[in-house]
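Course assignment 3, question 2. Fill in each field.
Student: A.L.
Task: Predict the tertiary structure for the chain below.
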Amino acid sequence: MSDLDQLTQSLARNLRRRRGECGYTLDALAARSGVSRGMIIQIEQARTNPSVGTTVKLADALGVSITALLDHEEEARVRVVPAEQAVRMWSTEQGSSSRLLVSAWARGPFELWSLRFEPGEGRDSDAHLKDTVELLHVTSGELSLVVDGEEYRVPAGGSVTFEANAPHGYHNRGPEPLELTMAVSIPPAT
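Answer field:
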């Protein structure tokens, strides 16, 4: 089974299980997430590999991390994730990418990400749940972070934290590759 097939199967199984645990019908989850009922059915039947944005909307609506939907292993007290098992969420032909390195629960989901952006590339994100916090550390290049329309520059070696309940984006406006590590704390479901 390929990595993509395994990811699709894990997402299908975990989405069905989490939806059941919350007691949501297909229609209820569609209304909470903004993802169509038909798309949810396709995902739960492992007939499609949804976009990162769609997966994040479903995770937010269920009050879980994206990892909870993608993980194929049960949580353990200590969990070592080898580099080759990090989940690549997206990539471009130019070489930009993001990998979910590891996640944990800290009164809700807590995720650690590695991101790379080639010059001129970036990624925008919708607002997350209230009380979602992101922490970023730039290891090379310069980050242009845009939060709710305002841009902040973070050079290599710098860090930033922000409440991610507003639209935001990560951009490389410089001449060299941008690499950063991101931690995301998501509030628990209420």
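Instructor remarks: The chain has a mean pLDDT of 85. The first helix runs from residue 3 to 22.
Grade: pending
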